[in-house]
Amino acid sequence: MILVTAANGNQGKLLVPRLLAAGHTIRACVQSEASARHLAALGVTDVMTGDMADPGFIARAVSGVRLVYHIGPTLHPAERSMGFAMIDAARAAGVGQFVFSSVLHAITTDLIQHEIKRDLEEHLLSSGLEFTILQPTNYMLPFRMKSVFEEGVFRLTWSLDRYQSMIAVEDIADVAALVLNDPERHAAATYELAGPGRFTGHDIGRTLSKVMGREIGVERIEPGTFARAMFGEQDSETAEHKGRAARAIAARYSSHDFVGNPNVLTWLLGRAPTTLEDFARRQYAAFQARVGSRA
Description:
Layout: E1 2-4, H1 12-21, E2 26-30, H2 33-42, E3 46-49, H3 55-62, E4 67-71, H4 79-93, E5 97-101, H5 112-125, E6 131-136, E7 138-140, H6 142-151, E8 153-156, E9 166-168, H7 169-181, E10 189-193, H8 201-212, E11 217-220, H9 223-231, H10 236-255, H11 263-269, H12 276-294
Helix pairs in contact: 1-7, 3-4, 4-5, 8-12, 9-10
């Protein structure tokens, strides 16, 4: 059995169908009943709904599990303690291999979410568990495209002149499925995952203009505006943590590039990784189909 945490999140909702198609038995951990219903509809028969900050819930989640794929909650103030507890529980339960979704350049500790994942990598390395660590760069995500498609503006919360690498979440899900399908082959590996190319905000705007066939504006927004747009209203502790993380991201990415090399991703996939243009074309086609269906 494979345990997938955050199983209806950006990665999980793409990974779970791949694992089911390969014949794996899945236990999926989610926080809401709506997510549980979605996964049940996909064919997951073992869905656990609960709080990953609850040690009892974590202990039940890892019981009888052979492999764990752990995806931490995005910019959650308890991400570090949740991850520590998950690793410790997996070791106590005799889990065979722990696969951790980390982040590219986790050693960049002036980024809050990187420092947390760096600590979790260290804890995993010291745990005695067999492990694999995936380190993806910034995701290509539909939410990044929403304002472009609807308003004709691409917005970024850091310098529009700094470069970033990007990766399609579908490519991460393909790599995760490869690892979980053949865990022994990927034991003790740490994989940096970056797609092809490196892009400034202006480069992204030009790519989107090409895809959409019209000129797209590019503008920088404040970190607080970005955090509210991405996460909505949060309780005060969570909002403060995410606000600090967003400000740290804006500061770091405005003074340094965030880039990686696509060679490892290409080797793992056995094909060319998804380009930003290909991703944008798929997202724009899906957007047009949705708009057409509502017309």
